[in-house]
Design goal:
3 helices; mainly alpha; single chain
Length: 80
Amino acid sequence: MRYLLRLLFLGILFSLAAGLYVKGSGDSLLGNRIIGFTVLTSAFIFMPLFLVHRWKGKRLKDYTLSQENLEKLRNSDQKK
């Protein structure tokens, strides 16, 4: 998964650079299409894969602000 994410990220960077180059060289419509496809790919393919990879094995309860976590924060502040 790690290498897939790296490869996909490098592909997105290359595609964005190619889109900007094509847009700057005169074919504005094709450049905008390449850039748009790159943005869609990064938003709907890369970002969900990245989030799944980073959240794997973690519990959401540790990061939410529940009553139990508030009590832990209050107790840690009082000890200092």
